[in-house]
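A reminder before we start the practical. When you read a complex entry, don't treat the lines as separate problems. The point of joint prediction is that each chain is placed relative to the others, so the output describes one connected object in space. Small molecules and nucleic acid strands, if listed, are placed in the same frame. In the example below there are two entries. Take a minute to note the order of the lines before looking further.
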Amino acid sequence: MIEFTGVSKVYPNGTRALNDINLKIEEGEFVAVIGLSGAGKSTLLRLINQLIPATSGTVTFDGTDVTSAGGKELRNIRRQIGMIFQGFNIVKRASVLTNVLSGRVAYHPTWKTILGLFPEEDKQIAYRALQRVDILEKVHSRASDLSGGQQQRVAIARALAQEPRLMLADEPVASLDPITTIQVMDYLKKINEEDGITTIANLHHVDLALKYSSRVVGVREGKIVYDVKIKDIDKKTFLADLEKVYGRAIHHDEMLGEG
Amino acid sequence: MDKIVVPKPRNLRRNAVVLSVVFLIVGSAVFAGFNPIEIIENFSKGKRLLGRMFLPPDWSYSAKVISPLLETIRMAIVGTFWGALTALPVAVLAAGNFLKNPWISKPVRLILNVFRTIPAMVLASLFVAVYGIGPFSGVVALSIFTFGLISKLTYESIEAIDFGQVEALMSLGADKPNILRYAIMPQILPQFMSYTLYGFEVNVRAAAVLGYVGAGGIGQTFEHNLAWRNFDRVGVIIVISFVVVLIIDFVSSHIRKRLV
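Here is the predicted structure of the whole assembly.
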């Protein structure tokens, strides 16, 4: 479904964030991307919907070259890709409904969405999305009045309203408490399994990766240094193997203990 | 215990700055011919003028002040409206983080800077020359003045928004107009409204003196009475204007506090 071929990204300040990445992700997978801060995880995710343009190489989404897409073609690709963020990035001064409906803007003519004219069908999609993440009762609340976990669920609902085929999650739980973390991860997993939406999540915690993903990809200094399916993981050597990703082995007492 | 000795801080730079500021102020006063003693020497003259203005003011003239004062406020309202309305789209063009095209934002900013350097009074005298004496010229001057003020404040607000919300809208396939509508406007609208109210406060004060160059409003009445040396009437104009401006400032700043 997604294929990176020889992708590199060098930022204007000279930082080489990614170096010759080759990666193939199949439909339906739940890929956890792990690695130190600054290893290139966020860049990797953002290359898929071209929020960050690649310096060289190509990224394809269902065979379509994302790296060379622009304008309407790019927006058509993006609307099939939901994205949630560490900072939630919902519009705080708007209602929950407006936020979720904004997930539909790429499906309609601009003049209609600017005037806020969404068809009843879209509202139903929005309500259903909110129901999926159990927050329908907040539909008319102002987004800024919600807690962090609730805001992240609204963000998931907005992504669901896109009726996406792929979900990108950039550190989705890094600013949440442990309880809400589990909730949000559970929703992502449920959506992945029930709707078959391919999911790629950057995660800080190795145990979350183990518990929720079907495949763990490790990034270090702009390179993929680890790529194993969960079913193939050898529990005995796993923590030691992570030395490739983090530069040293992970100890048992450094795990969250939630897996 | 031994006494700790640290080297004295080197104040050379600070002293040089203080010295040059003092020199600047004293030098300016000398060149401007400003002498504090002159104020004291002319004190009795000033006292006599104040007496003729305020002891007592000609209260019977109050009724005649109301109509030009209302005209002043109307000028300020219309000027603020047009200024703010035109400022919003231009501020969007001037903001470097929306179109991300320095070939647009930089020239637009340059033009805005030029607009802002022209005082309302100068604009008013220009427009009186074009459109003739009366409040219309004043409104045009105030519109342009407000435009310069609000567009600058607004584009700076746009550049200070939380860009994550923009990124989110981009990620779901929104085009520029939708990003503006759903990610930028909700963030800057309260500030924009606050700037507009602030613009109105400034405009009421500016509109009050524009009449001096014939651009309508209370300033024209003021100038007229001053020319005829009707100082007791001038006193009434000052007192009433003062109270009205104070009330408007109070109400407006109260609303502004609640907006942001």
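Discuss with your neighbour: Chain A touches chain B at residues 49, 51, 74-79, 81-83, 85, 87-94, 98, 102-103, 105-106, 110, 113-114, 155, 158-159, 162, 168 (CB under 8 Å). What might explain this?
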